[in-house]
Design a protein that fits this description.
By secondary structure, this protein is mainly alpha-helical. A two-stranded antiparallel ribbon has the order 1-2. The two termini are 24 Å apart. The protein is built from 14 helices and 4 strands.
Amino acid sequence: MLRPWTSAAAFVAMLALALAPVWAQSEDEITPESEAALERGLDWLARNQGPDGNWGSSDLGLVSMGALAFMSAGHAPGRGKYGRELDKALDYVVSRAKPSGLLNIADAQRDMYNHGLATFVLGQAHGMTTTKDRKLNRVLDSALKLIANTQCEDGGWDYKAQRQPNGHDLSLAVMQAKALRSAVDTGLEVPPEVIDLAIRSVREHYASKGGRNLPESEMQKLPGQFTYSKGGGGGTIAMAAAGVVCLQEFGQYDDWRITKSMEVIAAAIGEVPRARNHDGSMPFDAYTLYYVGQALYQVNGEHWKVNYPKLRDYLVASQVIEQQNPSGLGAWRDHGAKGGGRVGGKEGELYGTSVACFILAIPNRYLPILQEGKIESFKKVE
């Protein structure tokens, strides 16, 4: 059961967070051009948000991404230049929670996609507010309980919000991993058995070039990465990054699979062509970029120092500018430099712009999940 920490435990957790190392902002992370691009992107989101706060979308995951963009730039619920827009987006999501706690009003096949993403964003909002919103807190608590209750017997999750023997794929696990870590960072306790089982499941999505059935000592000698399915299928850049993010969020910082997948990610970033002339494209499709940026940040070191500026500068050079499209000024779309992307139309612009703003704002470290040090409360799973 998910439950609030006692006041004493919460104090210890807050103290640990305050003492945890938060990487200082480097002069190489933010440029005047990236700051201006971020502000144009936020302005696009504010201009295009409808009166209901949802940008005309009924997809709670996409609406949550719009909210996350504002928060990542330091705008908290009820505060900041875009506090009003943020409140509208959060209210849209919170008011549509189902009695079960499910945060999805689209097709049931998107249950745990939208639920995991929306729960993560509500967790970040919870951590950024000084005056707690009781309705948000109730919805968040129910949403977290649903994640724990729908975990499949093998540690994964299905597309639909239901418990069954086997989870479906890594793309669902990473959504729930971020939501669960967000819960821990904002003062809620997650049953350790949920985390332990999830870690084992994530590791089973790793495949080496020599096959999945080799002894682990042999797999460590070969190239490999996290994949979409446990059979080794779907070895995409998105899944390489998703696996890294999962293990980092679950405190498995020294897992050798992280290093192997980061090599794949760095190589892919090196192959991204120069940005085309303000065409609204992204280095990768929005889904992939969202996890690649987080994987770089979490692993830090040379991976972050060398590769983050490449993503940042691509976004600056590709953002739509007024001369090309006055109504689209400041936007990006869900379309990568080499193609890809699954969300079209206005929702694709919402998705692309939200992710791009999030990536450009990462160095500001405003989100609670970006201020964390290493967490030791998750039991080490061997």
